[in-house]
Amino acid sequence: MENELNGSELGTKEYWESSYTREIGNYKSHGDVGEIWFDEDSQQRVIDWLVKQQDIDKQAARVLDLGCGNGMFLVGLANEGYTQLTGVDYSPKAVELAQNIARDNSLDISYKVADLTQPQDALGAFDVVHDKGTYDAVSLCPENPKEKRALYLATVEKLLRTSDSLFAITSCNWTEEELVLSFGEKFVKHHTIPTPTFKFGGKVGSVVTSVVFKKR
């Protein structure tokens, strides 16, 4: 039986709208792109891993960033030569900030508002789907988090083009074992991206978990 996380304002749209409204102001005033939610290095680790995958065509592969926030993950991929890039977030203010940053850097990245607990057939299908903290935020929703996680995963499954498409997820709330268990009906683990570990009480653990899945 899955444990549930305690509900938090981090799982509400209102929190993120307020946060990104503030960050838009900071960006316009100071050029500050804003914070990257938990462990910026883990985002770069996923980018580095994708760049090393020789079977991914940077020009042809369609990449979708779920809960894109300020869009810096896709900016990183654009700087590595990826061209088919889309980001979605349920916060219109996050999308506005990401669009401003992409435009000011002369990058052709598509950003859209989307609630991933609802079907997103209009987005199409993708070769790489990325999630850093969005599944976490869904899990922190004060109302019906288990149901919303199931709806979210059903959406992700449909967004993957083929069984060889990749779903890369980084979490600070769920361990690799918990993710594999929760995703088991729809996804199979393909790869674990190493993250820094710590040792406490004779046990080794990680602050964050990064796992790549493929759909069954």
UniProtKB/TrEMBL annotation:
It is found in: Cytoplasm. GO terms for biological process: methylation. Residues 58-180 form the Methyltransferase domain. GO terms for cellular component: cytoplasm. Pfam families: Methyltransf_31. Its EC number is 2.1.1.-. The keyword S-adenosyl-L-methionine applies. Belongs to the class I-like SAM-binding methyltransferase superfamily. EFM4 family. This is Protein-lysine N-methyltransferase LOC108075855. It comes from Drosophila kikkawai.
